[in-house]
Amino acid sequence: MTTITVNGRQHEVAASPDTPLLYVLRNDLELNGPKFGCGLAQCGACTVLIDGKAARSCSVPVSAAAKSPITTLEGLGTIDKLHPLQRAFIEEQACQCGYCSNGMIMAAKALLDGNPRPSEGEIKQALNEHLCRCASHNRIVRAVQRAAKEMA
After folding, report:
1. Which residues pair with 12 in a beta bridge?
2. Is there a contact between 103 and 129 (Cβ–Cβ < 8 Å)?
3. Looking at residue 4, what is its pLDDT?
4. Where is the domain boundary, 32, 50, 72?
5. pLDDT, tens digit, for every residue of 37-92?
6. Cα 6 to Cα 2, 85, 94, distances in angstroms
7. Angle at 96 between CA 90 and CA 99, to 5 degrees
8. CA triple 69-83-79, angle to 5 deg
9. Structural domain that includes position 119
10. Domain check: are 55 and 91 in the same one?
Protein backbone atom coordinates (compact mmCIF):
# COMPACT_ATOMS: atom_id res chain seq x y z
CA MET A 1 0.00 0.00 0.00
CA THR A 2 1.11 3.51 -0.79
CA THR A 3 -0.22 6.63 0.90
CA ILE A 4 -0.60 9.70 -1.31
CA THR A 5 -2.07 13.11 -0.56
CA VAL A 6 -4.24 14.38 -3.39
CA ASN A 7 -6.17 17.63 -3.23
CA GLY A 8 -5.63 17.81 0.51
CA ARG A 9 -6.87 14.30 1.30
CA GLN A 10 -4.82 11.22 2.11
CA HIS A 11 -5.51 8.04 0.18
CA GLU A 12 -4.21 4.50 0.63
CA VAL A 13 -3.73 2.91 -2.79
CA ALA A 14 -2.80 -0.64 -3.62
CA ALA A 15 -0.48 0.04 -6.51
CA SER A 16 2.94 -1.18 -7.48
CA PRO A 17 5.56 1.49 -6.65
CA ASP A 18 6.38 1.92 -10.34
CA THR A 19 2.75 2.45 -11.41
CA PRO A 20 2.40 5.81 -13.16
CA LEU A 21 0.70 8.36 -10.93
CA LEU A 22 -1.77 9.08 -13.74
CA TYR A 23 -3.15 5.53 -13.54
CA VAL A 24 -3.68 5.82 -9.79
CA LEU A 25 -5.37 9.21 -10.11
CA ARG A 26 -7.73 8.10 -12.85
CA ASN A 27 -8.35 4.43 -12.04
CA ASP A 28 -8.11 4.27 -8.26
CA LEU A 29 -9.18 7.77 -7.22
CA GLU A 30 -11.54 8.29 -10.19
CA LEU A 31 -10.26 11.79 -10.96
CA ASN A 32 -10.94 12.83 -14.54
CA GLY A 33 -8.94 16.07 -14.78
CA PRO A 34 -5.59 14.56 -15.78
CA LYS A 35 -5.91 12.90 -19.18
CA PHE A 36 -3.93 10.14 -20.85
CA GLY A 37 -2.59 11.73 -24.01
CA CYS A 38 0.68 10.29 -25.22
CA GLY A 39 2.00 8.33 -22.23
CA LEU A 40 5.46 9.73 -22.97
CA ALA A 41 5.35 13.02 -21.01
CA GLN A 42 5.31 15.00 -24.24
CA CYS A 43 1.77 16.36 -24.67
CA GLY A 44 0.97 17.74 -21.21
CA ALA A 45 -2.59 16.42 -20.92
CA CYS A 46 -1.73 14.55 -17.71
CA THR A 47 -0.15 17.51 -15.90
CA VAL A 48 -0.69 17.81 -12.15
CA LEU A 49 1.06 19.82 -9.47
CA ILE A 50 3.43 17.90 -7.23
CA ASP A 51 4.57 20.06 -4.35
CA GLY A 52 3.39 23.07 -6.38
CA LYS A 53 5.40 22.23 -9.49
CA ALA A 54 3.90 21.12 -12.79
CA ALA A 55 4.65 17.44 -13.49
CA ARG A 56 3.58 14.96 -16.14
CA SER A 57 1.78 12.30 -14.12
CA CYS A 58 2.10 9.67 -16.87
CA SER A 59 5.86 9.50 -16.23
CA VAL A 60 6.00 9.91 -12.45
CA PRO A 61 5.89 6.67 -10.45
CA VAL A 62 3.35 6.77 -7.63
CA SER A 63 6.17 5.99 -5.18
CA ALA A 64 8.03 9.18 -6.19
CA ALA A 65 4.90 11.30 -5.83
CA ALA A 66 3.93 9.86 -2.45
CA LYS A 67 6.30 12.15 -0.57
CA SER A 68 4.65 15.41 -1.71
CA PRO A 69 1.17 16.92 -1.93
CA ILE A 70 -0.48 16.41 -5.32
CA THR A 71 -3.02 18.80 -6.80
CA THR A 72 -5.22 17.94 -9.74
CA LEU A 73 -7.66 20.11 -11.68
CA GLU A 74 -10.39 18.95 -9.30
CA GLY A 75 -8.42 20.41 -6.40
CA LEU A 76 -8.33 23.96 -7.76
CA GLY A 77 -11.96 24.93 -7.37
CA THR A 78 -15.49 23.65 -7.07
CA ILE A 79 -18.46 23.90 -9.38
CA ASP A 80 -19.83 26.61 -7.09
CA LYS A 81 -16.53 28.42 -6.65
CA LEU A 82 -14.28 28.07 -9.67
CA HIS A 83 -10.61 28.95 -9.46
CA PRO A 84 -9.88 32.15 -11.45
CA LEU A 85 -8.04 30.08 -14.08
CA GLN A 86 -10.99 27.76 -14.54
CA ARG A 87 -13.37 30.73 -14.83
CA ALA A 88 -11.05 32.55 -17.26
CA PHE A 89 -10.79 29.49 -19.51
CA ILE A 90 -14.59 29.39 -19.68
CA GLU A 91 -14.98 33.14 -20.22
CA GLU A 92 -12.33 33.24 -22.96
CA GLN A 93 -13.74 30.08 -24.56
CA ALA A 94 -10.22 28.69 -24.40
CA CYS A 95 -11.33 25.07 -24.67
CA GLN A 96 -12.72 23.56 -27.80
CA CYS A 97 -12.39 19.82 -27.28
CA GLY A 98 -11.13 20.31 -23.71
CA TYR A 99 -8.51 17.57 -23.85
CA CYS A 100 -5.52 19.87 -23.33
CA SER A 101 -7.22 22.19 -20.87
CA ASN A 102 -6.20 20.19 -17.79
CA GLY A 103 -2.52 20.49 -18.65
CA MET A 104 -2.78 24.11 -19.73
CA ILE A 105 -4.59 25.14 -16.55
CA MET A 106 -2.26 23.22 -14.25
CA ALA A 107 0.86 24.60 -15.97
CA ALA A 108 -0.63 28.09 -15.80
CA LYS A 109 -1.34 27.61 -12.09
CA ALA A 110 2.29 26.70 -11.45
CA LEU A 111 3.40 29.73 -13.48
CA LEU A 112 1.11 32.18 -11.68
CA ASP A 113 2.06 30.82 -8.26
CA GLY A 114 5.70 31.67 -9.01
CA ASN A 115 5.13 34.73 -11.20
CA PRO A 116 1.82 36.51 -10.56
CA ARG A 117 2.36 39.03 -13.37
CA PRO A 118 3.86 37.11 -16.30
CA SER A 119 4.39 38.70 -19.67
CA GLU A 120 2.75 37.23 -22.74
CA GLY A 121 6.11 35.72 -23.66
CA GLU A 122 6.47 34.09 -20.24
CA ILE A 123 2.99 32.60 -20.53
CA LYS A 124 3.77 31.22 -23.97
CA GLN A 125 7.05 29.78 -22.70
CA ALA A 126 5.32 28.09 -19.72
CA LEU A 127 2.75 26.50 -22.05
CA ASN A 128 5.15 25.82 -24.91
CA GLU A 129 5.36 22.06 -24.42
CA HIS A 130 1.62 21.54 -24.04
CA LEU A 131 -0.08 20.40 -27.21
CA CYS A 132 -3.44 21.77 -28.33
CA ARG A 133 -4.72 20.34 -31.58
CA CYS A 134 -7.70 22.70 -31.70
CA ALA A 135 -5.41 25.72 -32.21
CA SER A 136 -6.84 27.58 -29.21
CA HIS A 137 -3.43 28.91 -28.13
CA ASN A 138 -4.33 32.61 -28.41
CA ARG A 139 -7.48 32.12 -26.33
CA ILE A 140 -5.52 30.12 -23.78
CA VAL A 141 -2.93 32.89 -23.43
CA ARG A 142 -5.75 35.45 -22.99
CA ALA A 143 -7.34 33.23 -20.34
CA VAL A 144 -4.08 33.08 -18.37
CA GLN A 145 -3.69 36.84 -18.66
CA ARG A 146 -7.27 37.35 -17.43
CA ALA A 147 -6.75 35.02 -14.47
CA ALA A 148 -3.47 36.74 -13.58
CA LYS A 149 -5.25 40.11 -13.42
CA GLU A 150 -8.04 38.67 -11.29
CA MET A 151 -5.64 36.93 -8.93
CA ALA A 152 -3.38 40.00 -8.49
Report:
1. 3
2. no
3. 98
4. 72
5. 999 999 999 999 999 999 999 999 999 999 999 999 999 999 999 999 999 999 99
6. 12, 19, 26
7. 95
8. 100
9. 84-151
10. no
Are the CB atoms for 66 and 25 separated by under 8 Å? no
Please give the single-letter amino acid code of residue 61: P
When pLDDT is averaged across residues 18-43 and rounded to a whole number, the result is 97
Are the C-beta atoms of residues 151 and 86 closer than 8 Å to each other?
no
Spatial contact of 14 and 62, defined as CB atoms under 8 Å apart: no
**Is residue 79 helix, strand or coil?**
coil
114-119, long-range: CB < 8 A, 24+ apart: 116/148, 116/151, 116/152, 117/148, 117/152, 118/144, 118/148
> What is the C-alpha separation between 94 and 91, in angstroms, rounded?
8
Mean pLDDT of 101-116: 97
64 and 100 share one domain: no
DSSP H helical segments within 6-152, as ranges? 21-23, 62-65, 84-91, 101-114, 120-127, 137-151
* Distance in angstroms (rounded) separating the CA atoms of residues 121 and 38: 26
What's the chain's average pLDDT?
Answer: 96
